[in-house]
Amino acid sequence: MKTPTKKPPRPARVGVGDRVALGLLATKSRPLRSLLSACGIAIGIAALVAVMGMATSQKADLMSQLNSLGTNLLSVTPGQGALGGTATLPAEAPAMINHLGTVEVAASTYVVEGRVYKTDRVPSAQTSGVSIRAADLPLLETLRTEVAQGRWLDSTSPAGPVVVLGSKAAKRLGVDHVLDTTTGGGVSIFLAGQWFAVIGILEPVILAPELDSYALIGLPAARAIVAAVDDVPVDQAEVPPTSIYTRVLDGYVEQTRDLLPRTASPESPLDVRVTRPSEALAAQAATDASLKALSFGLGAVGLGVGGIGIVNVMLIAVLERRREIGVRRALGATRRAIRGQFLIESIVLAAMGGILGVGIGMGASLAYATSQEWGRTVPWTAIVLGLGASLLIGALAGAYPATRAARVSPTEALRTT
Amino acid sequence: MTRTMAPPTSEPVVTPPADLTPLSVRTMAAPTPSPTSPNADLAPALELREVTKVYGSAKGAQVRALDGVTLTIERGEAVGIVGPSGSGKSTLLNIMGTLDRPSSGQVFVSGWEVSKLRDDAVAAIRARSIGFVFQQFFLLDNRSAVDNVADGLLYAGIGRSERRRRALSALGRVGLSHRASHKPNELSGGECQRVAIARALVHDPDILLADEPTGNLDSATGEGILDLFASLHESGSTIAVITHDPTVARRFTRVISLWDGKIESGGER
C-alpha cells in the first residue's frame, strides 16, 4: 500500500461575485419575507437620512439667508434699567453712533406712547397687540428688508398721517391692502387718536422680528403726537430711541461692538445692550440640534430593532435551510464558506433596508425642504452614513446566525428520516 | 440493452431471492486492472482501515455503529454496499464521504489520510474528490437544473462561466441537456436524481458515493438510474452505492455486505 505523501489540499476561495450572488439568491427566493425583515432598517435609516437631510437643507438655507442679510448688523437696545420699567437710550445716541467711522449706516426706532386700533369705534380698554414706533428713514436699507406691498416712509410726506405696518401688525389689525395713490382708496387705522393712512406693509423682518408687530410712523408725525399729549411745542417733544440698528463695515464688527455702549450712552454704558441678530439666527438653528439629537435617537432605536429583526429572520433561515447547509458542506463548502454565505445574506437584507430607507428619507427631506421653500440639498453625508450603517448592522446582525449555520453538522442535516 | 453480464458473485450476498433477478440487468463488473489504466499507479480511491465509530458518551450507553471496518475501493471500481437498516450503512457513508470522522481507524481518500487533516482541508477534498448522490436528491428548489449542477463546482474555485459550461456537459452525460433550465419541481423524480448525479460528477470526483439512489423512485425509474451508474462506470467513474435493497446490490459484481457494524463479506477484493 502506497503511503500518502500528497500535501493536504487547500480549500478554494469562493469568489466575491459568487458570494454576493449566493446572498442575493435567498433574498430573491423569498422576496416578501426579505422586504418585511428589511423594513426595520429602512425605517431607521429613513429617519436618520430625513433628519440629516432636513438639517442640511435648513443649514444651507440659513447660510444663504445670512449671506444676503449679512452678519455685520448690530442692534443697540436699552439694557435692564436700574429702576426697571422701560429704559431708554439718550436722545443723542443715534447721532453719536452714526458718527462712528466703522458704521456704514444706522437707523433707529423710537418709542411713541399710544394705542393702535382698526377704527375709532374700538373701546379704549381693548388693546390690539400693536405698538407704535417712529422710524428713521434708512431703517429698511439698514435691515436689508422690503415692503411686501405699498411703499416705505419717505420725506415727501414727512408730516403726513401715514403709517407702515409690520407683517404681524397688519394681520392683527386686519389690514390686507394699502393706500392706492392713484385712486385714493385704501385703509386708515386709528393710531394715538388720529387717523393714519396705511401706505405700506413690511415683509417679515428676519434680522429684527420685533418690527413685525409695530405700526411705524415718521419721526415728525411722532413728535406731533407727543407734543400734543405732553402739551409742549413740537421741537421740544421727546421721542427716545429704543433700538438702533447699526450696519458695520465688514471686519470691524467685534471692535465696533465694544465701542457701541459708550458711544450710545457715555454716562451709563452698562445700561446698553448690544446684540448681533445673525448670532440669534444661528443659535436658533443650534436649538434645532436637540430635535436633531432626538430624531437621531429614534433612528438609532429603529436600526436596533431592525437589526434584531434581521437576527431573528436569519436564525429562522438557518433552521429552515439545514438541508441546504448539509448539501453545500457535502459539495465541499468549508464552515467558513457557509458562515460567509449567511453573513452576506444578512448584509444584503440590511443593505436592501438601507437603500429603501435612503430613498424614503431623501424623499421626506426633499418634500420638507420644498414645503419650507428651502433649496433642495442632496445630503450626501447622510446617504453615505445611512448605507454604511445598514451594512454594518447587517454584518453585526448576521454574525451570530452565520456562526450557527457554520456549526450545523452535515451528517445531522443530511439525515434521511 | 444487455452489454455486460458478469457471472453471479460467488460470495453470498444477503440472501438474494434468485427469482427476482431480471435477466436483462447490466451488472457493473469489477474492472480488470489493466496496465493501460491511467490510474493504475495511483492510490485507491477510498480506503478504510480498522474504522470504528462509537456513538454515545463514555459513561452512558454506547452504540458501536461501525466496528473495525477495513475496505478498499480501487479507482474504476463499482461497488455495492449492502446491509439491512441498522447495520451501519449511513455511518459508513458519512465516514467514507468525510462528512464524519471515525472514533478510531484511518480513512484515506485518494491517498489523503483524512483523519489527520483539518476540517477545511477535508472540505477541500470533498470539493474535488467526492461526489454525493442522496436518496432524496437534495436539489435546491429555487434553482434551475444547470445551476444546481454548477453548484457542485462552486467550492472547487471554478469561475462562473466555466461552471456553467461543465454543468451543461454533465447534464449531457446524464441525458438531461434538454431540461437544463427547468427547476426541480418541473422535473420527475428520476430526472431530479439524474440532476443530482450530474451535480455529483460535474467536478470529476475520484469516487461517487450514492446513498439509496433509487430509494425514492419507482422500480423502472430506479433501473434507469442504475443503468446510468453502469454506463458512468464503463466510462471510468468509481462508484459506491449504498443500499439495503439486494436487487440493487445484485447489479454490482463486487458487493460489500455489512452486518451489525462489521463487514461480513467483500471488504477486500
Folded structure, characterized:
- The complex is a heterodimer of chains A (417) and B (269).
- Chain A is an alpha+beta fold and 417 residues long.
- Chain A is built from 12 helices and 11 strands.
- Chain A has helices spanning 16-29, 31-69, 93-99, 139-143, 167-173, 219-230, 253-264, 277-320, 322-330, 335-371, 380-407, 410-413; strands spanning 73-78, 103-111, 116-117, 131-135, 147-150, 162-165, 188-191, 194-202, 214-218, 241-248, 272-275.
- The longest helix of chain A is centred in the C-terminal third of the chain and has 44 residues, at 277-320.
- The radius of gyration of chain A is 35 Å and the shape is elongated.
- The mean pLDDT of chain A is 85.
- Chain B is an alpha/beta fold and 269 residues long.
- Chain B has 7 helices and 10 strands.
- Chain B has a 6-stranded mixed beta sheet, sandwiched between helices.
- In chain B, β7 (207-211), α6 (219-234) and β8 form a beta-alpha-beta unit.
- In chain B, α3 crosses α4.
- The longest helix of chain B has 16 residues, at 219-234.
- Chain B is globular.
- Residues 1-24 and 32-40 of chain B have low confidence and may be disordered.
